[in-house]
């Protein structure tokens, strides 16, 4: 009886302890430096979570999910602007450290709810009228002078600069910039007042300030292209780059740097098809110290990502290394990211060199020989190639059906950026053993002989490792199954 009583007391204590532990609330002061996204997606609609490119290290969020329930955790330094899209809709969400977002995805919409904070008044209400009412003096002063130098084209309905008027009165025209800057400062004061009064959340405040500053930045760039006056380029450098404000911006750092290179250094209005090698060499005319280093790294990233010439990549990497020989961390990161160490001088021109997920190098010939006795379907693709990605779901269906029939599916990315390849492979759920990165594309004679200049492109090798189809049907083609079945049913496959 005594033993039974003691046992009962122990059970009660344990039970009460367990109940008490369950009732302990989470530590609200704990900071995990991450944004958590809880997803409910009953219809399993494939949805992408993306972000802009952070210019300092070219990092970018690009995550796909089609699970019924999923949890995504994103490491944050401060704030993050997320682009959430699927075949139904497109949404933007702003997150900060320790935020938890609840997402409900259905056939009509993506519903976003912040679990740990309530949206404030000016997170959802337009600020336009507030600016008009509280920055009236600054707006009127700016608009009065603006009308002297800009007019609306009656035919196009576009506001255009009056170039002759500007050329004759350049000193007064520059005063328009001061008035625009006063307008910017006033709007920033209005936003800060809202923040202090708890009428706007930190991420939305940061986004609004960023948009205002970026609008003024574009205004300065436009005037530089119009006048070619150093006043505007110097103003940009002093306001945006002397304190790294633009370079560190969580939302628009890439746009800031890319537009400076396009408009100021290369004097090119459109910010695409840029000669980053030329910009790399001209950078010392505009920057020194840390800013010069960051811009050089930015240009090298662009050269390595966009150039098909591995020799050009190697040459500019050598230049960067000569300028910063002691920055071993950055040098290793760039070398590893763009597989520069794998591009050896003794590579044979007719070989196709690949990297696997463990960073080991092998040739395509060696890879194909590993599957002797099987049919091999090779898919050349890249993370940036929309048509390639569109074929992947059908490729997975085919793979599941034909794997057991002796067909191996190999995926070879032509990405220049190793991280982009790895992230895309992970998102697309391509198994590591079948995922490879082409390191000498398009330099190898193999690519030249096949005229493999565009992707997606598909090849078929027979059971003896011989290339029998140089331009095989796509996974979505009605012809691909017929081809597989025909090859499988041949007597030499029995």
Which features does this protein show?
494 residues; seven-stranded mixed β-sheet; 3 domains; Immunoglobulin-like; 17% strand; alpha+beta
Oligomer: single chain
Strand order of the largest sheet: 12-11-15-14-13-16-17
Shape: globular
* Strand segment count: 17
Radius of gyration: 29 Å
Beta-strand content estimate: 15-25%
Count of distinct structural domains? 3
Uncertain segments of ≥5 residues (pLDDT<50)?
1-29
Number of helices: 18
Q: In percent, how helical is the residue content?
A: 40-55%
Arithmetic mean pLDDT: 89
Layout of SSEs?
Blueprint: H1 2-22, E1 34-40, E2 47-50, E3 62-65, E4 69-75, E5 79-85, E6 90-96, E7 100-105, E8 110-114, H2 121-124, H3 128-134, H4 136-149, E9 150-152, E10 159-161, H5 163-168, H6 170-196, H7 202-227, H8 230-241, H9 253-265, H10 276-282, H11 289-306, H12 310-323, H13 328-337, E11 353-355, E12 361-363, H14 364-369, E13 375-381, H15 386-402, E14 407-413, H16 418-427, E15 435-438, H17 445-450, E16 457-461, E17 467-469, H18 479-488
Parallel strand pairs: 1-7, 13-14, 14-15
Antiparallel strand pairs: 1-4, 2-3, 2-5, 5-6, 7-8, 9-10, 11-12, 11-15, 13-16, 16-17
Helix pairs in contact: 4-6, 6-7, 7-8, 7-9, 10-11, 11-12
């Amino acid at each position: 009886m005594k033993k039974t009583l003691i046992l009962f007391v122990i059970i009660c204590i344990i039970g009460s302890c367990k109940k008490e532990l369950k009732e302990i609330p989470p530590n609200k002061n704990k900071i995990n430096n991450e944004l958590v996204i809880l997803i409910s997606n009953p219809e399993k609609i494939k949805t992408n979570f993306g972000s802009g490119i952070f210019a300092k290290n070219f990092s970018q969020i690009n995550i796909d999910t089609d699970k019924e329930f999923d949890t995504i955790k994103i490491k944050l330094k401060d704030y993050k602007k997320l682009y959430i899209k699927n075949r139904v809709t497109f949404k933007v969400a702003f997150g900060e450290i320790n935020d938890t977002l609840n997402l409900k995805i259905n056939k009509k919409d993506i519903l976003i709810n912040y679990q740990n904070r309530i949206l404030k008044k000016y997170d959802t209400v337009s600020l336009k009228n507030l600016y008009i009412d509280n920055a009236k003096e600054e707006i009127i002063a700016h608009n009065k002078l603006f009308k002297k130098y800009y007019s609306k084209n009656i035919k196009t309905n576009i506001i255009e600069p009056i170039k002759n008027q500007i050329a004759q009165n350049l000193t007064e025209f520059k005063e328009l910039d001061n008035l625009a800057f006063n307008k910017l400062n006033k709007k920033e004061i209005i936003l800060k007042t809202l923040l202090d009064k708890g009428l706007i959340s930190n991420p939305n405040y940061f986004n609004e300030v960023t948009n205002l500053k970026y609008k003024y930045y574009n205004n300065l760039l436009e005037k530089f292209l119009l006048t070619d006056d150093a006043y505007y380029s110097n103003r940009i450098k002093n306001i945006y780059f002397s304190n790294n404000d633009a370079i560190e911006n969580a939302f628009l750092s890439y746009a800031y740097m890319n537009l400076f290179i396009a408009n100021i250094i290369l004097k090119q209005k459109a910010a695409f098809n840029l000669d980053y090698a030329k910009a790399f060499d001209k950078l010392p005319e505009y920057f020194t110290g840390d800013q010069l280093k960051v811009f050089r790294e930015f240009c090298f990233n662009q050269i390595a990502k966009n150039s098909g010439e591995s020799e050009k990549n190697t040459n500019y990497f050598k230049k960067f290394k000569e300028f910063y020989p002691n920055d071993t961390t950055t040098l290793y990161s760039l070398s590893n990211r763009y597989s520069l160490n794998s591009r050896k001088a003794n590579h044979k021109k007719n070989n196709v060199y690949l990297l696997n997920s463990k960073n080991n190098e092998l040739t395509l010939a060696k890879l194909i020989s590993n599957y002797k006795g099987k049919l091999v379907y090779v898919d050349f693709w890249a993370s940036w190639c929309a048509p390639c990605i569109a074929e992947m779901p059908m490729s997975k269906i085919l793979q599941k059906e034909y794997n057991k029939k002796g067909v191996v599916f190999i995926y070879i990315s032509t990405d220049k950026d190793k991280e982009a390849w790895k992230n895309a492979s992970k998102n697309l759920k391509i198994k590591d053993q079948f995922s490879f990165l082409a390191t000498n594309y398009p330099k190898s004679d193999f690519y030249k002989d096949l005229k493999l200049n565009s992707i997606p492109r598909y090849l078929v090798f027979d059971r003896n490792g011989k290339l029998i189809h140089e331009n095989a049907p796509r996974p979505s083609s009605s012809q691909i199954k017929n081809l597989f079945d025909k090859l499988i049913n041949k007597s030499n496959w029995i």
